[in-house]
Amino acid sequence: MLQPLRILFRPKWMVSRSSASYVSRMRHLNKIKEEDEACRAALQSGNIFLYHKLAPLLRRTDSGIYQLPALQTKDVEGILEKLGEDKEMVKESILINCTEQNKAQFSFDVGAIEQTAVEELCRGTFVDLRKAFFLLRGSEAPLVARGQALLRWHQTNGFCSFSGQPTHRNQSGSQRVCHSSGITYYPKMSPVVIVLVSDGKRCLLGRQSTFPRGMYSALAGFCDIGETMEEALRREIAEEVGLEVESIQYSGSQHWPFPQSSFMVACHATVNPDKTQVSVDKVELEDARWFSLEEVQEALTFKAPPRNNKGEPTVFWVPPSYAIANRLIQEWANQQHLKS
Ligand SMILES: NC(=O)C1=CN([C@@H]2O[C@H](COP(=O)(O)OP(=O)(O)OC[C@H]3O[C@@H](n4cnc5c(N)ncnc54)[C@H](O)[C@@H]3O)[C@@H](O)[C@H]2O)C=CC1
Ligand SMILES: [Mg+2]
Fold first, then answer.
1. Pocket test for ligand 1, best of 152, 192, 265 (most atoms within 8 A of CB)
2. Which value, to the nearest 10 degrees, does the dihedral of the CA atoms of residues 8, 13, 17, 22 take?
3. Does the complex come out with an ipTM higher than 0.95?
4. What is the pLDDT of residues 188-207, one digit of tens each?
5. Please, which residues have CB less than 5 A from ligand 2, an ion?
6. Alpha-carbon gap, residue 150 to 69, rounded angstroms
7. Residues with Cβ within 8 Å of residue 302, at least 6 apart in sequence
8. Contact criterion met (CB below 8 Å) for 154 and 176
9. Which of 8, 105, 152, 273 is the most exposed place for a label (fewest CB within 10 A)?
10. Where is the Nudix hydrolase domain (predicted)?
């Protein structure tokens, strides 16, 4: 019998944020999202995060910490001019969010401009986004993911899928319109369920053949059209590992920029401890197996994948702390610890 969903944690924003400042910030953000003139003005005084072919620019500080440099719009215009490009290109920036001080934040892909020339001028390095998730602190990871996802969406939605004609963006980049068909397109996310299955003592993790060596994660799958999240979860676990879940508890959700923006809904689930024999669908997964609390606790201590001198990961490790899979695993380990 599936149990009703239950929120397992109280996100920080529910307790700490002052509602008055939050409301004014959201209204300001909505205005610059919807009104082209307001957005152009916000860009002039805003911050821009740079990308090169969707890889974000990171800067390493003297103390070895990686940061996401927030450039001023004038700085980016200066960089474009120095490299012989049209500074008006900066207007292609896409609105991502705004700071607590109502400063608008944008993402801009320098695209075809030579990577190293931009890196030198910005004193930074363009880093693959998956790698950036291991390097950045918690608050910067969702921002960089959202910026990349929006850039990717614009790069792949330049034409109307009904008329074949070009689509045109508004200033903030929150939508694209086809003037021929009249269709308005909005950035899209695909719903995905991600679930940490437990038999009461161990948890079940799997790996696809495309995962980096040694990495195991919670099981995940895209929802089919017409399915509820609970139905998708039960189906995915049955398909991928041949098990039937008995109870589900909601944990949280996150936007995940891969493969083309997923909306991850994360849950814990249990199976009958007498029915834990795994039968792995080898088309979907290379391996899936039960892990003990001790194994999981060790994997959670790694800040980066442990590697031998050839650079190959040596032991079992889990996704970085920003990934919601990591949080599910962490929550499970905490609960097991409390039980013991
Ligand atoms: N944030 C996190 O902690 C984690 C995120 N994920 C994400 O979850 C996603 C889904 O997990 P999988 O096991 O790969 O899903 P899956 O088990 O549904 O298998 C993927 C297959 O589903 C099909 N598919 C159906 N709808 C799709 C759509 N809208 N987009 C792309 N493919 C679609 C494709 O044939 C694809 O090869 C992954 O792409 C991965 O990026 C996975 C694990 C951890
Ligand atoms: Mg899957």
1. 192
2. -130
3. yes
4. 999 999 999 999 999 999 99
5. 220-221
6. 18
7. 317, 318
8. yes
9. 273
10. 187-319
pLDDT band at 1 (very low <50, low <70, confident <90, very high): very low
Residue nearest to atom 39 of ligand 1 (CA): 259
**What's the 172 CA to ligand 2 centre distance in angstroms?**
34
Q: What is the mean pLDDT of the chain?
A: 93
Kindly give the pairing relationship between strand 190-198 and strand 262-270.
parallel
pLDDT at 76: 97
Indicate the pTM of the whole model: 0.91
Alpha helices in 198-258 (DSSP H): 229-241
Tokens of 39: 């957005």
What pLDDT score was predicted for residue 212? 87
Q: How many CB atoms lie within 10 A of CB 301?
A: 8
Q: What is the Cα–Cα distance from 158 to 168, expressed in whole angstroms?
A: 8
153-184 pLDDT, tens digit per residue, is: 999 999 999 999 999 999 999 999 999 999 99
Nearest CA to ligand 1 atom 31: 259
Spacing, Cα 193 to ligand 1 middle (Å): 9
Residue nearest to atom 32 of ligand 1 (CA): 222
Taking the C-alpha atoms of residue 54 and residue 72, their distance in angstroms, rounded to an integer, is: 19
Q: What is the pLDDT of residue 138?
A: 77
